[in-house]
Amino acid sequence: MSQGSHVISIFNPQSAEAWKLSPLNNYLIIACSFIMIVVVGLLIYVTIKFRAKAGDAEPKQIYNNRTVEAFMIGIPFLMVSFFFYQTVKVMNETEPTVQGQVPTVVITGRQWWWQAVYPGTTVVTANEIHLPAGKKVLLQLESQDVIHDWWIPSFGPKMDMIPGVKNYLWVTIGKPGVYEGACSEFCGKQHAWMRIKVIADSPADYQQWLLNKSKAALPPADTLALAGAVIFNKKSCADCHSIRGTPAQGKSGPDLTHLASRTTLLAGMMTNTKEHIKRFINNPEGVKPGVRMPRFIFKKDTVNALVAYLSNLK
Ligand code: CUA
Fold it and tell me: Domains of the chain by range and CATH?
């Protein structure tokens, strides 16, 4: 993979949609800052310059100054009209109709991770979502439990994920790279550890990725991993997790078919190392409090076998 990470900021637009949204945002910030400086400046000036002194009489009261009123009403009216028009225009450009369009990926917010299913393929993955750069793609956003919110600041618009509702976002990523974001709607204990990583590939790399990830899991590489595979299916692991090409077809936890090819675990909480997989299996609640995965009291050899199996799933 080719690409460095980008600064996570709305001031670092990296998609065609963000390039449209960003100038509007900048104009708004400039206009609002200008108004704030003028209003607060005048207020401070007037407060000091015309403050009451001992013996001052009641100042002259002025009513119905048409000129002042015309400015007070006219300037805000013009500004609101301008930004309303620009907002509707940008919304139309960045959120065109989705009717009849097949989404590139269906992303489901779950407590506390992201499931990604690629329609028309067998690819299912979690948390690290690959998309082609330079192409306009449609994301379908859903939730399995509570309201989550999908937001990668560099891509511009954010979108709520609401149970029972299908929401959509168009994104045209400028160039290959890694783009990060996070869940932006408080969704429970581990909301803070619901990070998003989008890996934008060149269209050719993306096709290759889809092809690789549509394959079934690699068979266990050695006897320890083989023992791990047996344990995975015999113990409860397979009830919640899928590993394609094996009997494990659980749907409530992340798909682990190609776990080892992801760079992080637990929606960005830890790097994907054997040590971290082991630590999590040994004490899920201790690593990610509130996590849905129950704690199993496994023997050391059992955990080692599971780790050998999982860390081989490239
Ligand atoms: Cu999901 Cu906050």
Answer: 16-94 (1.10.287.90), 105-213 (2.60.40.420), 223-310 (2.60.40.420)
